[in-house]
């Protein structure tokens, strides 16, 4: 019951901190025809001579990708007849929120990162809505996310799958359609979204030899398009990236190369500039004479839209008039007065003053709205945190064997009632009364807990607990969040060094040798994946292995790692079941072949064989099957982590007699290997290319499942190892696992809420909170699977043999 309440309260907190926006359909964004009662000729001041427009989005087009070497033809076009702008992109740097920023001009919610995987949200207003409203014919070819965001808006369209990242030729479908459309005259706006560059970046990174090849291909394509397109008078060609690409491939974080992209305009007399991505829709609207999206926080750029004083002033007034409905500006009315004076008397000094004040208002309001783009629900945050804190205290009291925790059922009823009140009825009177009672119970339990801690733990256990207590408190510093791996690397070394000293003094030479080897192998593992923020872009051993000239060494290392995994399988499968070893050997061999020649059919076969192996080894050990899953999902250079984890676990089980120490050390080991695998506290470290093993198209459930398995690989393996060794104390183990995760989540949540206005809130603290939220939810999923397994074992006696 308590684990369900923890999960429910966690979801309430997540909803409170990452609210899902509910767009309004009540738009009032038509160009104005008066200013304070003075009539304006909007048809004269807000008109466009642009006949056709192409807006091309190149997925993951980094700022440094646009240069004379990679895109020489486009570079000359921009120099001769256009301008080059540097665009600042907000986090999260994934496709769905970036499309929303490019078309609607607002800063999407952080929860759009999750929605990006499903692409189900429909935009309520955008530059595309404005074009359709103005009777423009809009067509689209490219990433199917656009079609889901803008249903029934495109006259002609064809989508491509954006998530199948191992397809590097998907853009051919876009090119084929564009070549046909350029010969037609019946459209006004063409939106294109090219994906191949992003796919290459996900799999091989930005420094692959495939990147220049693809950029040269795009360069020639753009040049050929423009040669045909410029036959239309006053045609406009815009090219930009939705987000960039980090130096080790992928995106989703906040590094410079992920958050800076180019915006190229060809066919317009404009000046180069630097501005936000959210400004793009406003300026497109101003250039094409369309209504500005009502939810936009962007501002017009003089470098792009200026033609005459009259037209520029009108665009400034229109833009400012929309934004002041959302944020007050003291100089707005004064700017209007100067504008009216200019209209009546053609006073140039009044025009300059009006421009100055309007630009000031736009800059001030836009910056303010950008900083306050997400509004948290503090009722949800406070209630969920208090509930989670009381659950943590209750779990600790249970672990300590308190006899005073008698009100637990009453607490659960109160918790459930509070959550229901807030989620459904939101009756503040009932909720407040129950909340006060709950706070009193929390204080009582906390006092009991404090009196018990000192008398229940040995010095060695307290040593572990002090580190557990201090670890999440370091998140107060953003640098410690970015470099969290250093904490686990240090603590792992410290523990095994301490054990080595203990074994050495007691003349346990075998134990001393094991600890020494674990430390040596760990030192080798540290060099495999550079992680964190400070060292992320430094060369590491995996980079060396992936170089073409080192391919043979890579193959040898991969083969040795597979052999090491097979030896661990031999250990886990008892002697009476040795007939299962050939199947394991076959699967590992096929995995080795698959990693060198990826085939969807071979991937499907391996998954089938792993499932068969699961059925055959169900009574022996779930670890056997999980090791095979990891062997398939992990990068070849990370396979060595599997035998390292199992060997470390064996030593841990021999070092400690008490279950709580075994569980705590396995928790530390899982955190260590999470980072050693190459992850960090940036969402950009999540490798979505892993999700396509055995697939030829994007299937959300299967892709997300494989990505989650890969991300949670070693936490799950460590949990399985705990139950393999101490399965008879499962109730205590689950309490310890949830206590650890819950404590980290609570501290992370408190720090994130406290720092919600911090400069790095969306680039450092929010991603960390999101990762901890995922860890906690996945732990609950593990618990549910465990209970299902327990039910099967209880109801079906055939599975009672060693069901750990």
From TrEMBL:
Q: From which source organism is this entry?
A: Phyllotreta striolata (Striped flea beetle)
A GO MF annotation of the entry reads:
CP2 mannose-ethanolamine phosphotransferase activity
Q: Which PANTHER family match?
A: GPI ETHANOLAMINE PHOSPHATE TRANSFERASE 2 (PTHR23072:SF0), PHOSPHATIDYLINOSITOL GLYCAN-RELATED (PTHR23072)
Q: Cite the CDD domains for this sequence.
A: GPI_EPT_2
- GO BP terms in the entry: GPI anchor biosynthetic process
Look up the signal peptide feature and give its range: 1-23
Protein name (Swiss-Prot/TrEMBL): GPI ethanolamine phosphate transferase 2 C-terminal domain-containing protein
Q: What cellular component terms from Gene Ontology apply here?
A: endoplasmic reticulum membrane
Keyword Transmembrane helix (UniProt) = yes
* Protein location: Endoplasmic reticulum membrane
Q: Gene3D superfamilies under this entry?
A: Alkaline Phosphatase, subunit A
Q: Give start and end of each GPI ethanolamine phosphate transferase 2 C-terminal domain.
A: 429-595, 658-769
Where does this protein act, in terms of pathway? Glycolipid biosynthesis; glycosylphosphatidylinositol-anchor biosynthesis
Q: Which UniProt keywords apply?
A: Endoplasmic reticulum, Glycoprotein, GPI-anchor biosynthesis, Membrane, Signal, Transferase, Transmembrane, Transmembrane helix
Tagged with keyword Endoplasmic reticulum: yes
Q: Which InterPro entries match?
A: Alkaline_phosphatase_core_sf (IPR017850), Phosphodiest/P_Trfase (IPR002591), PIG-G_N (IPR037674), PIGG/GPI7 (IPR039527), PIGG/GPI7_C (IPR045687)
Return the similarity comment.
Belongs to the PIGG/PIGN/PIGO family. PIGG subfamily.
Membrane topology annotation: Multi-pass membrane protein
Pfam families, A to Z: Phosphodiest, PIGO_PIGG
TM helices/strands, residue ranges: 378-400, 407-423, 429-445, 457-481, 487-504, 511-531, 551-571, 578-595, 601-620, 632-652, 707-724, 736-755, 761-786
């Amino acid at each position: 019951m308590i684990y369900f309440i923890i999960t429910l309260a966690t979801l309430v907190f997540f909803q409170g901190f990452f609210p899902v926006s509910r767009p309004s359909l009540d738009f009032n964004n038509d160009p104005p025809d008066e200013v304070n009662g003075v009539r304006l000729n909007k048809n004269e001041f807000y008109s466009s001579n642009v006949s056709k427009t192409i807006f091309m989005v190149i997925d993951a087009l980094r700022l440094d990708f646009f240069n004379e070497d990679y895109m020489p033809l486009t570079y000359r076009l921009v120099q001769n007849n256009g301008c080059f702008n540097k665009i600042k992109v907000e986090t999260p740097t994934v496709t769905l929120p970036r499309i929303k920023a490019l078309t609607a001009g607002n800063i999407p919610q952080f929860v759009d990162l999750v929605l990006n995987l499903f692409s189900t949200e429909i935009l309520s207003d955008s530059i595309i809505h404005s074009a359709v409203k103005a009777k423009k014919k809009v067509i689209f070819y490219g990433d199917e996310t656009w079609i889901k965001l803008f249903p029934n808006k495109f006259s002609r369209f064809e989508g491509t799958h954006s998530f199948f990242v191992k397809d590097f030729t998907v853009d051919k479908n876009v090119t084929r359609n564009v070549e046909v459309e350029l010969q037609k005259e019946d459209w006004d706006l063409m939106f294109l979204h090219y994906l191949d560059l992003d796919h290459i970046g996900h799999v091989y990174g930005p420094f692959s030899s495939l990147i220049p090849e693809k950029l040269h291909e795009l360069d020639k394509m753009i040049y050929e398009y423009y040669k045909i397109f410029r036959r239309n008078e006053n045609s406009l060609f815009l090219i930009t990236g939705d987000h960039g690409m980090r130096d080790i491939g992928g995106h989703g974080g906040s590094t410079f190369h992920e958050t800076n992209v180019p915006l190229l305009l060809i066919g317009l007399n404009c000046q180069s500039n630097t501005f936000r991505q959210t400004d793009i829709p406003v300026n497109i609207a101003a250039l094409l004479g369309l209504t500005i999206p009502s939810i936009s926080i962007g501002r017009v750029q003089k470098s792009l839209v200026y033609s005459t004083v009259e037209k520029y002033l009108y665009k400034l007034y229109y833009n400012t008039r929309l934004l002041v409905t959302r944020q007050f500006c003291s100089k707005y009315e004064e700017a209007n007065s100067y504008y009216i004076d200019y209209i009546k008397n053609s006073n140039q000094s009044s025009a300059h003053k009006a421009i100055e004040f309007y630009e000031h208002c736009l800059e001030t309001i836009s910056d303010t709205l950008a900083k306050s783009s997400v509004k948290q629900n503090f009722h949800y945050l406070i209630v969920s945190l208090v509930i989670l804190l009381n659950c943590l205290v209750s779990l600790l009291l249970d672990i300590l064997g308190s006899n005073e925790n008698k009100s637990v059922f009453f607490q659960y009823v109160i918790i459930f009632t509070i959550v229901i009140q807030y989620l459904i009825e939101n009756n503040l009177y009932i909720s407040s009364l129950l909340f006060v009672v709950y706070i009193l119970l929390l204080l009582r339990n906390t006092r009991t807990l404090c009196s018990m801690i000192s008398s229940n733990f040995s010095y060695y256990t307290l040593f572990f607990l002090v580190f557990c207590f201090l670890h999440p408190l370091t998140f107060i510093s953003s640098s410690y969040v970015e470099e969290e791996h250093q904490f686990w690397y240090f603590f792992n070394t410290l523990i095994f060094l301490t054990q080595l000293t203990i074994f050495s003094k007691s003349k346990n030479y075998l134990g001393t040798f094991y600890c020494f080897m674990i430390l040596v192998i760990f030192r080798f593992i540290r060099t495999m994946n550079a992680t964190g923020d400070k060292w992320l872009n430094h060369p590491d051993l995996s980079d060396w292995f992936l170089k073409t000239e080192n391919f043979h060494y890579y193959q040898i290392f991969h083969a040795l790692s597979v052999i090491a995994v097979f030896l661990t399988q031999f250990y886990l499968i008892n002697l009476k079941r040795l007939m299962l070893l050939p199947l394991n050997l076959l699967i590992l061999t096929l995995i080795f072949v698959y990693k060198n020649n990826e085939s969807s059919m071979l991937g499907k076969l391996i998954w089938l064989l792993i499932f068969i192996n699961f059925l055959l080894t169900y009574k022996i050990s779930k670890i056997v099957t999980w090791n095979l899953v990891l062997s398939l999902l992990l990068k070849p250079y990370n396979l060595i982590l599997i035998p390292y984890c199992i060997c470390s676990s064996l030593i841990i089980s021999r070092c400690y007699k008490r279950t709580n120490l075994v569980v705590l050390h396995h928790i530390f080991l899982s955190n260590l290997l999470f980072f050693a695998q190459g992850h960090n506290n940036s969402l950009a470290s999540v490798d979505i290319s892993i999700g396509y093993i055995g697939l030829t198209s994007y299937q959300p459930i299967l892709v997300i499942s494989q990505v989650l398995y890969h991300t949670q690989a070693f936490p799950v393996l460590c949990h399985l190892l705990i139950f393999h060794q101490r399965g008879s104390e499962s109730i205590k183990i689950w309490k310890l696992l949830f206590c650890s995760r819950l404590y980290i989540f609570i501290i992370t949540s408190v720090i994130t809420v406290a720092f919600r206005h911090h400069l790095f809130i969306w680039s450092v603290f929010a991603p960390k909170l999101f990762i901890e939220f995922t860890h906690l939810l996945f732990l609950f999923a593990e618990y549910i699977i465990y209970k299902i397994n327990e039910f099967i074992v209880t109801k079906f006696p055939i599975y009672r043999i060693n069901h750990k």
